[in-house]
């Protein structure tokens, strides 16, 4: 089950990235991480930018609110979203 943690000014959650996929989207959960498929390749930060852009659109928040807290060069990342509550993120990710 996806674990979304409140951080006072926002939330954080884990994602596992599948790069160079045929389609960008959420493909499920792995343990306590959200599995996200991205069409972008892992070159020059393109997959990271695609991840931020996709999650910002999905959560309906500005791009500047979504950051990668850890895992810049890994497929396993921790995403931080400022200005939202954990319940809001859970609802948006499940819809």
What this model shows, in words?
The chain is α+β, with helices and mostly antiparallel strands and 95 residues long. The protein is 24% helix and 36% strand. It is built from 2 helices and 6 strands; from the N terminus they run E-E-E-E-H-E-E-H. It has helices at residues 46-59, 86-94; strands at residues 5-6, 10-18, 25-30, 33-37, 66-70, 76-82. It starts with a strand and ends with a helix.
Set down the secondary structure blueprint.
Blueprint: E1 5-6, E2 10-18, E3 25-30, E4 33-37, H1 46-59, E5 66-70, E6 76-82, H2 86-94
Parallel strand pairs: 2-4
Antiparallel strand pairs: 1-2, 2-6, 3-4, 5-6
Which key features would you list for this structure?
95 residues; alpha+beta; globular
Largest sheet: 6 strands, mixed
Distance between the termini: 15 Å
* Total number of beta strands: 6
What's the helix count? 2
Residue windows where pLDDT falls under 50 for at least 5 positions: none
Structural class from helices and strands? alpha+beta
User: Helical proportion?
Assistant: 10-25%
From N to C, what is the helix and strand string? EEEEHEEH
Strand-residue proportion: 35-45%
What value does the average pLDDT take? 95
Shape: globular
Supply Rg. 12 Å
Work out the oligomeric state of the chains in this entry: single chain
């Amino acid at each position: 089950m996806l674990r979304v943690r409140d951080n006072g000014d926002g939330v954080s959650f884990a994602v596992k990235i599948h790069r160079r996929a045929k389609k960008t989207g959420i493909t499920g959960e792995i343990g306590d991480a959200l599995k996200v498929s991205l069409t972008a390749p892992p070159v020059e930060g393109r997959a990271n930018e695609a991840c931020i852009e996709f999650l910002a659109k999905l959560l309906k928040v500005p791009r500047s609110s979504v950051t990668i807290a850890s895992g810049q060069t890994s497929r396993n990342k921790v995403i931080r979203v400022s200005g939202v509550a954990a319940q809001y993120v859970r609802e948006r990710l499940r819809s």
